[in-house]
Amino acid sequence: VLRLIREDGVATRTELARLTGLSRPAVAVRVSELITQGLVTERAHGPSTGGRPPVRLAFNGSGGAVLVASLGYSHGHLAVCDLAGEIVVMDETRLAAERGPEMVLPALLDRWAGLLTEAGLSAADVRGVAIGLPGTVEEASSFLEPPGLPRWEGAAIGPVVAQRFPVPVFLDNDVNVMAIGEHHAHRADGVDDLLFVKLSTGIGAGLILGGAIRRGSLGAAGELGHTPVPDGRGVPCRCGNDGCIEAIAGGAALLERARLKRPELADLTELTALARAGDPAVVALVREAGRRIGEVLAIAVNLLNPSIVVLGGDLAGAYDPLVAGVRESVYQRATARATRRLRIEPSRLGDNAGLIGCATLALDQVLAPESIDALIP
Amino acid sequence: VLRLIREDGVATRTELARLTGLSRPAVAVRVSELITQGLVTERAHGPSTGGRPPVRLAFNGSGGAVLVASLGYSHGHLAVCDLAGEIVVMDETRLAAERGPEMVLPALLDRWAGLLTEAGLSAADVRGVAIGLPGTVEEASSFLEPPGLPRWEGAAIGPVVAQRFPVPVFLDNDVNVMAIGEHHAHRADGVDDLLFVKLSTGIGAGLILGGAIRRGSLGAAGELGHTPVPDGRGVPCRCGNDGCIEAIAGGAALLERARLKRPELADLTELTALARAGDPAVVALVREAGRRIGEVLAIAVNLLNPSIVVLGGDLAGAYDPLVAGVRESVYQRATARATRRLRIEPSRLGDNAGLIGCATLALDQVLAPESIDALIP
Fold it and tell me: Could you tell me the CA-to-CA distances from B283 to A128, B267, B309 in Å, in that order?
């Protein structure tokens, strides 16, 4: 019943009875339980035709909140989202995953409490918590192997959060939550197969196939940065192989190459700003990086046949030449079948992809029929 | 109820009532409907403890049949399978997909009728039909773009079959049905993420992720043969690019190279026989091809993080040196995370993978709860 109201906008008890095959009294009982839970609202609507005025039901997005955070190695974002998955209040933070859970978690909990107050909400409104981290998460609640984040391994995150907010906690890889967010933003277009590519210091991917994120057998799916580029030999990569796309066209490699021409460049943000400003040397470098990235994406497009490739991450700020370069190579190297109707686009959500993805991840669970059934006595 | 009996081996009405939460009378009604449909059998079991003797229920694999065919460009296999997905009778055929549906379909229907008689079954026992073909199938029942098989495009396969067997018809790509078959053979091991690779004249893949085949947005997923091999430049491929793995290590390329040393070789079957017999020149060639294939599979393993890679197709007959070569490259090139607990193995089902996969594809649909509900008045 909730799914019909929330996802399909079904607004009357009569319609709910028809669609579910439940009796009208059975529908009435469920709807009044959902109203009690604050998940559904009703309001009188339109002129009465005699008898009781018709009442329209609606999903009550403001009937609760989820707390979300998207943490990188050096900084992060956090937010309070409503039950419709929209950001209510958000903030940037210098809290970084590398500082370890014993430092980060309590600080996160305090920051969330502050944001809740700012939003006029309380801990009682919180229905779920979700965090995206730059590591491998085997299950949605157990942290397996965060490369470079040893202190998170096996950390008891759920119990610590539960002391402040006794609700389900979800963890996922940072690129996966961005992919989930972008998928959410494309759901209205009927997109079921989406390849999200995070272009930042490194290069990673998140795979939406058949309408859901696919994490692989150990949560490690989406490793794209160590794909060898044709003609890439001779460029050593930190992974031990050589010719990997990350070593050739990742943000770190690109920044290094750009500094040969523009020694004053401090970071990727400045680099993408120069690209947007049309600096010819930087534009040429970014476009060439896009081409090399496209050669590797052609392989993934052939293998996965997505309907859309979404380019996100810091480098995606250098949108035009980057996307042009990627398109050039993908349409040339991938098969005609795999590229027919394929779109290659920059992120719709930008910096918010991870937060929206965390909210989607949490809400798809806490508003699932089983979870709602468990709430109702 | 049927799923519990079929997949989990639940054998008593009492247990069914406990697991489903249905009342005992409700379970009794459903079970007797399933017995009427021939899908479930019961037999007295064990000594009575007084009162009625305990009765054990079992899924009745022989309560019906599915007709399956796996067609290649030059030859094919067809079979009658029981409802447990086991092959009852099978046959090879020189019916090839390239002869077009107007030729192939009527002949297939006659051959199936013959096999049914041989199995002591009749058309009334048939509950579904499934065919694997070397083309791209967008939906399970509409044939989209069979490369090299223009006559199949848009062919009205369902209606033609329905004149003889008025049951659901399922079509899929030949590599996809092999992947589904191998997944079926590994289901007992809890495998949810399996990469099937068909090594034959060409090279293709089937992706099982999250427990189901993933066909991509237009049914074209699994294209692996046109992945560029590092250092592969200079070898032109029929796709127009150069350095593709298929042009370097596909069956056709391998046969050509082997003939430089063994001019008498007629086909891949003879080549793999020589490899199995230990011919040093052929073994060395096959092992090197395995290494190059492994370089490409490392990319797919990084991206998908399967728990098992299954090698099938004609070349897989040259098992030992091929698998050794593949393993060598995959474990060297793929990341430590992606290869932890990764198995790389030859096909369990061999030539039968496509037939078993077709049976699985059909049975998962015709024995699904919705389909069973529709059968029962």
Answer: 58, 16, 21
Contacts of B233 in chain A (CB under 8 A): 230-231
Scan residues 162-201 of B and list those with Cβ closer than 8 Å to A: 192-193
Q: Which of residues 110-139 of B touch A (CB under 8 A)?
A: 136
Closest Cα in chain B to A146 = B337
| The two structure tokens encoding residue B238 | 């029929």
A223 touches B at CB < 8 Å: yes
Contact B301, B235 (CB under 8 A): no
Q: How many helices (H) and strands (E) does chain B have?
A: 14, 14
Q: How distant, in Å, are the alpha carbons of A292, A311, A317, B252, B337 from that of A274?
A: 20, 19, 10, 49, 36
Cβ atoms of A60 and A73 within 8 Å: the answer is no
Average pLDDT, chain A: 87
Does the CB of B305 have a partner CB in chain A at under 8 Å?
yes
CB B247 within 8 A of CB B233: no
Q: Which helix (H) or strand (E) holds A75?
A: none
Residues 271-300 of A with CB under 8 A from B: 295, 299-300
Q: Which of A137, A297, A304 would best serve as a mutation to test chain B binding (most B beta carbons within 10 A)?
A: A304
Of the pLDDT bands very low, low, confident and very high (cuts 50, 70, 90), residue B221 is very high
User: Residue A58 is encoded by which pair of tokens?
Assistant: 């609606």
A256 to A26, A262, A307, B368: CA distances (angstroms):
65, 10, 34, 57
For chain B, what is the mean pLDDT? 87
ipTM: 0.90
Closest by CA position to A63, among listed A32, A84, A38, A37: A38
pLDDT in tens, A288-308: 999 999 999 999 999 999 999
From chain B, the residues in CB contact with A231 under 8 A are 233
At B223, the pLDDT band (50, 70, 90 cuts) reads very high
Instruction: Compute the C-alpha angle A20/A127/A220, nearest 5°.
Output: 90
A145 reaches B (C-beta below 8 A): yes
Q: In this complex, do B333 and A228 lie within 8 Å of one another by their Cβ atoms?
A: yes
* Residue A218 at interface with chain B, using a CB cutoff of 8 Å: yes
Q: Distance from CA of residue A55 to its chain's centroid? A: 36
Strands (E), B98-202: 126-133, 136-139, 142-145, 169-173, 194-199
d(CA A158, CA B65): 49
Joined tokens for residue A261: 């021409």
Q: What's the CA gap between B331 and A163, in Å, rounded?
A: 43
Question: Rounded CA gap, B245 and B235, in Å?
Answer: 10
DSSP for B320-350 reads HHHHHHHHHHHHHHS-HHHHTT-EEEE-SSG
Q: How far apart, in whole angstroms, are the C-alpha atoms of residue A95 and residue A191? A: 34
- Among chain A residues, the shortest Cα distance to B241 is held by A333
Phi, psi at A179, each rounded to 5°: -65, -40
